[in-house]
Every structure is written in C-alpha cells, then in structure tokens.
Amino acid sequence: MILVGQYDSPFVRRVAVALKTYGLAYQHKPWSTFADADKIAKFNPLRRVPTLVMNDHTVFSDSAVILAVIDERVGPEHATLARRGQDGRDLLRITAYATGAADKAVSLVYEQVLRHAVLPLWVERCRLQIAETLDLLEAERQLRPTTWLFDDELSHADVMLCAMTTFIAEALEGEFDWSRWPALSAHAKACEERAAFQEAYQRFAKPSEN
Ligand SMILES: N[C@@H](CCC(=O)N[C@@H](CS)C(=O)NCC(=O)O)C(=O)O
C-alpha cells in the first residue's frame, strides 16, 4: 500500500495513525499537493491527499472512505478505532464536526496564502465556523469522563479531534485563543504523546513553502 500526502495534513495524519494502530505496512510518499501535484495526478486526478494506492492498484481518495476500506480490511475484531451502535453514530457525528472544522481551516489557509488580498467576509465566516464548531467539540469532550471519547481505547473520532486541533493550532497560529477550549487542548496533548501520532507528524508549513 502507498499513502500519498504529508503528515501536516490532518486528513493524511488520521489515516496514517489508523494504519500504524492496525499494524498495516505502507510506503509513504510525502508529496505536497502544490509542489508535487503532477506526481499525485498520476494516481488521483483530484490531486488531493490523502490518496491510498492499494496493492492491486485500486486508488482511494478521501480520508473517511479510506478508513472505511481499512476497517473492512482488518475486520471487525481488529478495527479497534471503529465503534458500533450509539457510539458508532456519535463517532461519525463528532468526526464530521472535526473534519468540517479542519476543512474550514484549510480554506482559510488557502485564502491567506493563495490570494493577493483576502476577502474579509470569507475570512470572518471561516473563523466563526471554526470557533463555534470548536465550542461544540469542547462540550462533547467535557461531557465524557472516560480516557478517550467512548471508553479507554482510542477511536477514529479521538484521532481526528487531535489531528484537527494540532493542525488548526499550527496552521492558524495566533488566530485563536486556545484557553477557550481546554478539554480539546488536553485531548490533543494526550494523543501527541503516543508513538503513532509522533511517527505521523510533520509541522505545518504553508503550501508555498513545501
Ligand atoms: N475530505 C477530504 C479533505 C482532504 C483535503 O482537504 N486535503 C487537502 C490537504 S489538507 C488537499 O488535498 N488540498 C489540495 C486541494 O484540495 O486541491 C478528506 O477527508 O480526505
């Protein structure tokens, strides 16, 4: 298997942490979506990451799809990051808010890096969407007394919550006051201490810098 994309992408990172957690071997191609767009295009015309190339050359795009494929491949007994029933629905709900906040942060980064002059309306909208989604996620995390969101074992939602928090804190450094979200900050800190997160980490650099 080949995982295409840099670990400074929260979406690539969540896939890498899952592959490592499940002990699935993969080759990593840390290609930049801008500088290496032509290389990515050979596998994925969207030129987006994560892109996962399977051993049979099937190519999957989008982290949620890739994780569904990986969970199915390892089977229900080994897919420890997945949940079923009410926890499964909560996992999807929380993860969608976390990926949504990360999507808005990516939009904001592109707005600030790729345009000569930002559109204030869009910047303010993205900031508000991110901040109020972080409020929702903070409340969800505070509600839960367990080590991780659902129990004492990591889930895909835990991974995404951390990947999103670290990404926004680094990519939009200084734009938010993180004392507003102490539970999210503590959650990310606990995840970042684990080997899988440390192995799948690249400090964020602006698209023009890599
Ligand atoms: N919904 C996608 C989002 C992936 C995404 O936004 N990837 C960014 C990098 S963080 C990307 O490929 N950007 C280049 C582009 O969209 O052209 C997922 O979950 O995989």
User: What class would the helix/strand composition place it in?
Assistant: mainly alpha
Total beta strands: 4
Q: How many domains is the backbone divided into?
A: 2
Order of helices and strands: EHEHEEHHHHHH
What composes the largest sheet?
4 strands, mixed
Please give the count of helices. Answer: 8
Text of the CATH class of the largest domain: Mainly Alpha
Q: End-to-end span in angstroms? A: 24 Å
Assess the beta-strand content as a share of residues: 5-15%
Could you tell me which ligands this complex binds, including any ions or cofactors? glutathione
Helix content: 55-70%
CATH topology of the largest domain: Glutathione S-transferase Yfyf (Class Pi), Chain A, domain 2
CATH architecture of the largest domain: Up-down Bundle
Q: How are the strands of the biggest sheet laid out side by side?
A: 2-1-3-4
Which residues form runs of ≥5 with pLDDT under 50? Answer: none
Return Rg in Å.
17 Å
* Overall 3D form: globular
* Mean model confidence by pLDDT: 97
Would you mind describing this structure in some detail?
With 210 residues, the protein is mainly alpha-helical. The protein has two domains: 89 residues, 3-Layer(aba) Sandwich (Glutaredoxin), CATH 3.40.30; 110 residues, Up-down Bundle (Glutathione S-transferase Yfyf (Class Pi), Chain A, domain 2). It contains eight helices and four strands. It has a four-stranded mixed sheet, covered by helices on one side. α1 links the parallel β1 and β2. The longest helix has 30 residues. Bound molecules: glutathione. Glutathione binds next to α3 and α4.
